[in-house]
Design brief:
alpha+beta; elongated; S74_ICA; five-stranded antiparallel beta sheet; about 10% helix; Arc Repressor Mutant, subunit A; Endosialidase_C_dom_sf; Chaperone of endosialidase
């Protein structure tokens, strides 16, 4: 028979043993330490300087000082010395420093709440619902700052979601269900589910109705899962049916559709995109003012035959922009070019805007009369008369040339050739005669062809060198960007005429003399 008990290794009193009280007291001391065990700390490695009698510590790895070589043991301070006990599988202890409960499992002290198979609070947990709570509320709070509730799934096709039920039957679910897009689903019976909304993981774009994210580059998509009308209702306050606005995209028959912006379902729609049955092909676009709004400027485009049946209006302020893929007529119903104006065209502010630029030039300008330039002496500060000798010297230094343009013109083509330049979506829409969806636009390329005909003129660089040599500068020569010496240079031929005039007068006077 062993001299120690099987579980706590308490010493037995032997038959006819002398000093029985010593063995009995030793057993009581161990019971006092190990039963209802309380430790001053778990994983401690350095003995305290002044431990209290009966203090018990669960030692960690690397024990030092009087605890050296006792890693993993229980150290008790009794009678001014340390006693050591070997913990056994399943022993439990309360850590007085933290209030936590520890259990000796697998050769080490572990938090008693770690690796639990299941927990039921007010109810019974099962193999699937390993944490079950039956209560009026469940509180998850912060510990001085923020707080996160994390739901993690293994792979993309798995599910990480919150499921809301009525009588254990699902009614709503939100989370990552079968993909990494955040989705919201609803159900009336827990069997059939409707995908109400999807938030794309890569772009954040939102899709409502059928739950699909925008498919053509948009940020918000609203669709009817039953292939009916898609509507967005805007409610103002709690005024009920007397104050709301509706945006509706509806089928108008065949392959056409309409978008209607309305207020209180009244006929004074703010904007109505609607195919019009006026006997012609295509659709009409109508921009209306609400019946109680005033002060908006409008652009009205009548039908091609001039009838007053349908009017198409665009209302806005001075910043309104109009972009058309077909010819536009202003003051005429028969445009013969991209823009046809029946009347005068003037800038909004005098002497403030240019027609074209160094990089966006017109190929040719047709006119009956030449350009009229303001030349009233009241608009000019005359610095001096042109020196005839200087004018003659300039003419001598500048040689007129015959030349051909390196870039004789540009053409738009569907087939790439030598050095094609692809156009962007806005350029293609402006270049084509038929309106098409942006996602359906085929590639269009800009081809530059060499000049064929010989022209006569001057070289801007020659004129600049002659002016520099003469020590003068005037507006006959110019450069696109004064800060970029390699930018394109240009001439104003009209300002060369006075120079030529002064030189001719000088030669006439010389001849007369």
């Amino acid at each position: 028979m062993s001299d120690l008990s099987a579980r706590l290794a308490l010493p037995f009193i032997a038959p006819s043993q002398a000093q029985k009280h010593v063995t009995h007291n030793e057993a009581l001391q161990q019971l006092d330490l190990l039963v209802q065990m309380r430790v001053e700390g778990v994983g401690v490695t350095a003995p305290p300087v002044a431990p209290d009698p009966g203090a018990l510590y669960a030692l960690g790895a690397g024990a030092q000082g009087d605890w050296a070589g006792q890693d993993g043991q229980l150290a008790a301070f009794l009678n001014e010395s340390w006693l050591f006990f070997s913990p056994q599988e399943g022993w439990q202890a309360i850590d007085l420093s933290t209030g936590g409960t520890w259990i000796y499992r697998g050769g080490s002290w572990q938090n008693a709440l770690d690796q639990l198979e299941s927990v039921g609070i007010g109810t019974t947990a099962d193999a699937v619902n390993r944490l079950a709570v039956a209560a009026e509320a469940t509180l998850l709070s912060h510990e001085g700052a923020g707080h996160q509730l994390k739901i993690n799934k293994a792979t993309l096709p798995d599910t990480a979601s919150l499921l809301f039920q009525t009588g254990w039957s699902g009614r709503a679910e939100m989370g990552l269900t079968g993909s990494d897009d955040f989705a919201i689903k609803t159900s009336s019976d827990g069997v059939g589910w409707s995908l109400a909304a999807t938030f794309a993981a890569d772009t954040g774009a939102v899709g409502f109705g059928d739950g699909q994210p925008p498919q053509y580059g948009g940020h918000l998509r609203i669709a009817d899962p039953n292939l009916g009308n898609a509507r967005l209702e805007l409610q103002a306050g709690d005024a009920g049916p007397d104050s709301y606005a509706m945006i509706e995209h509806a089928s108008a028959g065949g392959d056409s559709s309409q978008m209607i912006f309305s207020v209180n379902a009244a006929t004074n729609a703010l904007i109505d995109f609607n195919p019009v049955d006026d006997g012609s092909s295509g659709a009409a676009v109508r921009f209306f003012r609400s019946t109680n709004s005033t002060g908006l400027a409008t652009l009205t485009l009548h039908q091609a035959d001039g009838s007053s049946g349908w009017e198409h209006r665009i209302a806005g302020n001075s910043d309104t922009t109009l972009s058309l893929s077909h010819d536009l007529g202003v003051g005429t119903t028969n445009p013969n070019a991209k823009l046809t104006v029946q009347g005068n065209v003037t800038p909004g502010t005098d002497n403030a805007f240019n027609l074209g630029s160094a990089t966006h030039r017109w190929s040719s300008i047709w006119a009956v009369n030449g350009t009229i330039q303001t030349s009233d002496e009241r608009d000019k500060h005359v610095e001096n008369r042109i020196d005839p000798a200087l004018a003659t010297d300039l003419i001598r230094q500048v040689d007129p040339v015959f030349f051909k343009w390196k870039a004789g013109g540009n053409e738009l083509c569907d087939i790439p050739g030598d050095d094609p330049v692809p156009l962007n979506t806005d350029q293609i829409a402006a270049a084509r005669a038929d309106p098409i969806e942006p996602h359906e636009i085929a590639p269009v390329y800009l081809h530059t062809h060499k000049g064929k005909r010989t022209h006569a003129g001057f070289l801007a660089q020659d004129v600049k060198r002659a002016m520099d040599a003469a020590g003068i500068d005037f507006g006959a020569w110019g450069i696109e960007n004064l800060d970029a010496t390699d930018s394109r240079q240009f001439l104003r031929p009209d300002q060369l005429i006075p120079v030529l005039w002064a030189a001719v007068r000088y030669l006439l006077e010389q001849q007369k003399a």
